[in-house]
Amino acid sequence: MSLLVVGSIALDSVETPFGRRDDVLGGSATYFSTAASFFGPVRLVATVGDDFPQAHIDFLAARGVDVAGLERRPGRTFRWKGRYEFDLNTAQTLDTQLNVFGDFNPELPAAYLDSRYVFLGNIDPDLQRRVLDQVKAPRFVACDTMNYWIGSKRDSLLKTLKRVDMLFVNDAEARQLAASSRAITSSPRAPIRWPRSSTRPALATASPAGSWATWRVPSARSRRCCAEPS
């Protein structure tokens, strides 16, 4: 199985009621590739600065993540600072420094072009499509997005979703994307459609009540499964 992930790698500073940590390893590509490494090999495409600790790269490589697509450039690594309250569900952004990630322009190594499975991390939807333009014939494409892209680049995001099989968002982002205040997870059908596939999962949402996946099958409007929060 060839699984490609393209996204951000960051150094995060996080405050919670239980403690604080500065410059810890973060970013959508980091979290996804680490989790996916439990199930198979992962190909990683991202960019970091010359201040990025080699120990973090060694950590990913030790998990079987192919880091040939990880670009190290002169400058500082993407940094994010945020605060969580007791529910640990909503982050308050205190500071964002894009640094070398600000002009990230993903170029896939030749060995990655035949990737059958693709995960597009939370990056500019224009860049997400640029990745898809390079992959030859992906069997399944999933992507992540956030409220910033939904609000600022909605039309571009919708273009990306036409080429995606599955979208990961939280409950608030699903409502924003659907321009609806009703609970997406309690609805018999999600008011968001993607034409790439009629039988594969279409929407995965998460909320404090749990996680849901909604997809369409030929014989019904939709099917849903849910997982209780851990």
Textual characterization of the structure:
- By secondary structure, the protein is of the alpha/beta class.
- The chain folds into two domains: 3-163, Ribokinase (UDP-N-acetylmuramoyl-L-alanine:D-glutamate ligase); 165-230, no CATH class.
- It has six helices and 13 strands.
- The chain has a nine-stranded mixed β-sheet with strand order 5-4-1-8-9-10-11-12-13, with helices on both faces. A four-stranded mixed β-sheet has the order 3-2-6-7.
- Helix 3 links the parallel strand 8 and strand 9.
- The longest helix has 10 residues, at 125-134.
- It is globular.
- The two termini are 28 Å apart.
- 32% of the residues are buried.
CATH architecture of the largest domain: 3-Layer(aba) Sandwich
State the CATH superfamily name of the largest domain: Ribokinase
When the domains are counted, the total is 2
CATH T-level fold name of the largest domain: UDP-N-acetylmuramoyl-L-alanine:D-glutamate ligase
Distance between the ends:
28 Å
The residue ranges in which pLDDT falls below 50 over 5 or more consecutive positions are 185-195, 224-230
Name its key features.
230 residues; alpha/beta; UDP-N-acetylmuramoyl-L-alanine:D-glutamate ligase; 2 domains; four-stranded mixed sheet; 22% helix
Describe the structure concisely.
With 230 residues, the chain is of the alpha/beta class. It is 22% helix and 37% strand.
